[in-house]
Task: structure prediction
Amino acid sequence: MEKQNLKKLVTELLTKYEKLRDCDNKLTANVWNTQLLKLGYNIKTLSANDILRLFADNKLYSPSSIVRERRKLQECNIHLRGQKYKIRQVKLQEEMKARMKKNKLYKVVKYDENLNPKTQNFLNL
Result:
């Protein structure tokens, strides 16, 4: 199992199925499904014991590797980000603004159209 293969597989799945962008369990299940099919297993007849044995024998990618690859891909590729990512970023941004206002590090200054934009300070730091 090569890292490049995992990166390619996760990229393909995130691109094709948007619902996988926000659910690591669904992403992991789809990665394993693809791997099992490539290894020649019929997933409809495979027992849980068989899957556990394959996982224990390192024939399947670990969930942590899959999640780590998803995070790296979403960090670098905006089009692969899900709704949870966007919501989390907005929330963190609002929390940071509130903290900066509380500590008087952030102050919104009214924009004056008559002044040169390069000389206007929007943040009083």
Notes: The mean pLDDT is 86.
